[in-house]
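Quick illustration, no need to memorize.
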Amino acid sequence: MTAAIETRALRKVYNEKVVALDGLDLTVNEGEFFGLLGPNGAGKTTTIGILTTRVLPTSGEAHVAGANVTTQSADARRRIGVVPQRPNPDRGLRVMENLIFHATYFGVPRSVANKRASDLMERLGFADKKDAKVDPLSGGQQQRLMSE
């Protein structure tokens, strides 16, 4: 079976004092359901942060669908989808800018991102709000914006 998620000796230390992860070895194979449970401070959020490339590990390795999250971060991000519990668009950017920013974050060239963002705005039904800040969007519109 192929590993969807794999970590080896994964370690994260914050501020040279707080050990959030200490040698995590984990394999989740394709097609498996997996839940990450533990008490406060167990390293759950740090693990997810590393797997989604938002947190750099102190040492060890983590792979998502074969891509190393540290050395192949753009490839790893292209292989995952993360929908947060609450919409989290960048409130300093306009609606269209949020889409373009996230596309380029995933390695899409800016010229392609512009076209895709315009098409997506039409499909989502709020192309008229492309130059608006995200705050006037409803919660559902913000969630759709962030999950597309």
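The longest strand covers residues 3-14.
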